[in-house]
Description:
By secondary structure, the chain is α+β, with helices and mostly antiparallel strands.
Amino acid sequence: MSEPETATPEETGLFDKIVNLTKRRGFVFPSAEIYGGFRSTYDYGPVGVLMLRNVKNSWWRSMVQMRTDVVGIDAAILSPPQVWEASGHLANFTDPLVDCRACGARHRIDKLDDPDTCPTCGKSGQFTEPRQFNLMFKTHAGPVENDGAVAYLRPETAQGMFTNFANVLNTSRKRPPFGIAQVGKSFRNEITPQNFVFRTREFEQMELEFFVPPDEAEKWYQYWCAERLQWYIDHGIPADQLRLRAHDADELSHYSSGTSDVEYLFPWGWDELEGIANRGDYDLTQHATHSGEKLDYFDPATNERYTPHVVEPAAGATRTMMAFLMAAYHEEEVRGETRTVLRLHHRIAPYQIAVLPLSKKDTLIPPAQQVLSALQPHFMCDYDETQAIGRRYRRQDELGTPYCVTIDFDSLDDNAVTVRDRDSMDQERVPIADLLDWFRERLV
Ligand code: ATP
């Protein structure tokens, strides 16, 4: 991962604005806030749950729904030590931890700008020798807390795809090259969670394990690097805020012949959204050795048996949501006032449409409800009849809603509504009878 660069005050401003907006509008709340919050954990509110779901669904749409060579699974979060013994996590999934002798603070030394100075108290030369700290959350399954009951919360979703390789091969009719995809929670006991939802102890991942004939691994690695970079661009992040960074030889794990990160230009500098790794046959071979099960593929076309190689694009859903929010955030002057608007891609925005009766007058509510009922089965809609219409538009701008539909008194005569575009603020009169098709053309 690249080292964070120092943020300018202007950039720090963006970070604070995002944290503030997401709290104010119901995207993200500090977890257990009424008890003072809990150690960098976050809850996703009424709007955030929609957006996070859209991030995950958009990934699933591109990686599973729109392909014939990828299937999905949803594996258990709890797993036995054997899995993590085989994967190497028990021995190697560690970060270097130091204690400050002066103030007692603990830091991950490889992430410090100055590895000699404590960022908590500012004192130099007070760190203990680094020791390796395992990031996995350990617990016990069942009522007896002995060694036989030890279980781990998964620190990545990937192992579920490896342990189910033979099950999927035997049931799905897929043959290499093919992939297994999974979206779900992962847990890492990070030494220093930081930067809001960028690094947390509980987070969500979107991972694909793509199994290929060994001589095709390099080709597929290049393919997935290009494909994954393009996915972020297609979903609204400007290309000049993204880059693909190949790891140097000394950053690679011993089994990887190539790893590249998709990085986003966060307010603190370039940082990782996703890693794409060419993992060779390491994972399947490890699990085959440790479990005693055959995890290979017999190719009837060539009469050859081989262990597929794996190309792994591994992304963070919660971290990606943060990048989408940052890239979408804009402030602009409109008639002497500052308008804050999230220019989110329509597939990522929490709501696609807001239905707004111009006033709470009785006559406008039934037609507004009718419009809502016609649109709701097809799109995620918000409905709001409070406050003046200008303030409701501003609220929807801050939620990133691409279109507002306003039902006014003319609607009672002409059976048409005003549709307002979030980005241009242009307004167009659309007959209610045409509304569904009008939106289908723009939002599907
Ligand atoms: P980092 O170097 O940032 O700790 P990593 O290289 O260990 O991340 P991977 O194991 O490759 O991360 O995980 C794949 C993706 O999962 C990351 O690119 C990131 O988007 C996400 N991710 C990993 N750890 C966290 C975390 N603690 N909080 C939120 N997202 C995470």
